[in-house]
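Consortium newsletter contribution from the modelling node. Members have asked for a concrete example of what our holo predictions look like. Here is one, prepared for the succinic acid complex that several groups have been discussing at recent meetings.
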Amino acid sequence: MDKQIVDIDMADVGHGNPAWIAALEAGKVLYFPNFGTYGKAGFAPQKEELALFREDIRDPKSRNISLDAGGNLKGAAGDDADKAMLAGMIGRFRAEAEGLLGNLVPRYGEHLRRGATSFRPSVVQTRVQSWRADDRRLHVDAFPSRPNRGERLLRVFTNVNLEGQPRVWRVGEPFEDVARRFLPRLKPYAAWQAKLINALGITKSLRSEYDHLMLQLHDAMKSDLDYQKNAPQETFGFPPGCAWVCFSDQTSHSVMAGQYMLEYTAQLSPLHQYDKDASPLAILTRLQGHALV
Ligand code: SIN
Ligand code: FE
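And here is the predicted structure:
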């Protein structure tokens, strides 16, 4: 397998480097080792924010602490002062993440829609979760209740661990290899089922065939232990202070270890990609031979 992680010095980010855009749209991970230390850009927590770095700052009922596009903070424990400081810290990272994307992929521009930005204070190694929710298993991101009809999930991550612990990821094979391997085993789409679960309120809108296939891929990857162990993969520890960027609906990824990360999500219609044929929607449509949305 080709190397799936591409190193980029922040000094070389420039304005729309075609090789990095192609790598990103091919599902690779763009890695910025000096994100946190590069001049005025980048992100590092401020001294008073260090008080937020404790596991119980997260409400145990929530998976993450997040600041939504409308500025609402969700999932936080702590008092009002903690919450205001969390919103400030997450918002500062969001501004840096959007700045980085503006330079990396300038043509996405105004087509990038701001999603949620999260702070993840939990220890990855010991968290107990069902196999389906367990992001320690290789997967592509797909969400059961939120159909997106092919819209892309572009994410920027930074490791903000204070004790030098890396955020350890596995990055798997390219999306088309995943799709070719699993498509023959997936349950076919049933329009009546999509209508039923939508009427019952299980989905927020009608699940398209694309959404069905993406969820099935997510589940098929995670439930196959042999695949988890033996699939082509690269393990990498992202050190504190770095950032990395990928399309998480396309890049096969898993997180094995770490604590304290910030993550920014933007959505993008695949029609606004540099190469429209590189999207999961285009790849699945080609492999299935018919329209999926
Ligand atoms: C994921 O997106 O699957 C988890 C990433 C992480 O928590 O490092
Ligand atoms: Fe994921």
